[in-house]
């Protein structure tokens, strides 16, 4: 009887295993079949009588694996269109200037999620397009113009809105949750180690509300950012800036389309079918013809990156948190310092590579990782090769650390930078463990500090005065090294750097005034500067992007899985998801940080 039972169990196990193996093989076979099908079809070409179609919807990443097999498959699985990256949008607008098949640009505003510098880059590209050719640019708000969408849309020749739509322009505000009371209630004390009065990344865990220093810096940079944006929107719409701000203060979201038009905020209204009829007219199509809308990915594929006759200029992307702890809840791009260092080292040894532009869009991260990237760039320069930095939305804290050694730093006036400071946070859960959970910790140790190893980033006993002093000294040393790096790179005295450091965040306008930035300019401007500096200004050079984005099937599945987990959490947690995300980061970071305070600009 027992023998039969064992045979039955074993048979079931073997059968289950074989079924799983067959299912896995079938899944792999189907996956490769789908990938082969995608690979066998070349990227769609631009049709005659087309419009460049820029859909402002969702996050705008710096770049993407657009047009690749994995990206196309992921979009298919999600049942969505492939999203457009900033790089593709800018390249596509450049191509559209001279591409005869492109009759104009249609901006479909459906809620972009992007910081001011990204939006301004797109806006400036559109203005340059208008100045370079006579093709029309039309913007349309089907339901409403979110503030970021409207900022871009004001660069268009015509700003059109649904007859029952709205425009929501209200100015800028930063929103930061503070967790001290919550942590006190659950019995967690966060022990703070920092240098810099303005280093506000630690504030949410040590204060109940914003400090005067943090309010001061946020007031300055938000004011300067909004000054740029409101001035440009007002100018494009032919409205005085003071009047535009008065309208923004009047809860513009509640204005009727008639009021919006009377105040010159829009040019007219039309329903979606009427908007499509206007597009057909511009394209020269019949009323029954399908619209011909070319996505930025398709148009950008025609972008000429140059030919490698005299050399290569490498554009190296440093996007996201530096050595951010991998998490299934985080779907964004992060900087792997080891991978980036290897990339820079390979480029250093490549004789065809004459110069490098580091494209930085990072709030910082690991101080150790930042130093490694800085050192790799110094080695690159020692080979007689030029390094320039192009700053995106953020190049703060560790993002500035890796930038400061460049021979030329380019930024936008709305870039957030600086934050030259360093900190560490060590959560202590003694009250939670002992008083609330009723768990008593008994320790036997051979040395005074043997029990200070953390579990999940949390300790069960507070630091002793000796331990705290030692850790603070370690932080002070890191800050001293950071300011030395900046002083050497910017050719300033260390004392001068410390006066503008203190962890303070600066906008691009002020950063240029105090010497942290050399000039305002785009990524393309930085590339041109490097080309001239290394005597490649003949135009016979190639621009290549690094590191290569992962495009394999495995990374696609990982991305899809992370996205689904994130969607479910957001759906169930609602407004509390942001708080959960920041609290998770508190316990997952195991290193000393050069990191800017996370906040949301609304």
Keywords for this entry:
alpha/beta; disordered N terminus; 8-stranded mixed β-sheet
What is the gist of this entry?
The chain has 602 residues and is an alpha/beta fold.
The CA-CA distance between the termini, in Å, is 71 Å
User: Which consecutive residue ranges, at least 5 long each, have pLDDT under 50?
Assistant: 1-10, 16-21, 23-43, 66-72, 327-331
Number of strands: 22
Tell me the fraction of residues in β-strands, as a range.
Answer: 15-25%
Multimeric state: single chain
The percentage helix is: 40-55%
Mean pLDDT: 86
Total helices: the number is: 21
**CA-atom Rg in angstroms:** 27 Å
Gross morphology is globular
- Please outline the major beta sheet: 8 strands, mixed
Please identify the structural class as seen in this structure: alpha/beta
Describe this structure in words.
The chain has 602 residues and is an alpha/beta fold. 46% of the residues lie in helices and 18% in strands. The chain has 21 helices and 22 strands. Strands 11, 12, 14, 15, 16, 18, 19 and 20 form an eight-stranded mixed sheet that branches. The chain has a six-stranded parallel sheet with strand order 9-5-3-2-1-10, with helices on both faces. Helix 12 (337-349) links the parallel strand 11 and strand 12 (353-362). The protein is globular, with a radius of gyration of 27 Å. The model is unreliable at 1-10, 16-21, 23-43, 66-72 and 327-331 (pLDDT under 50).
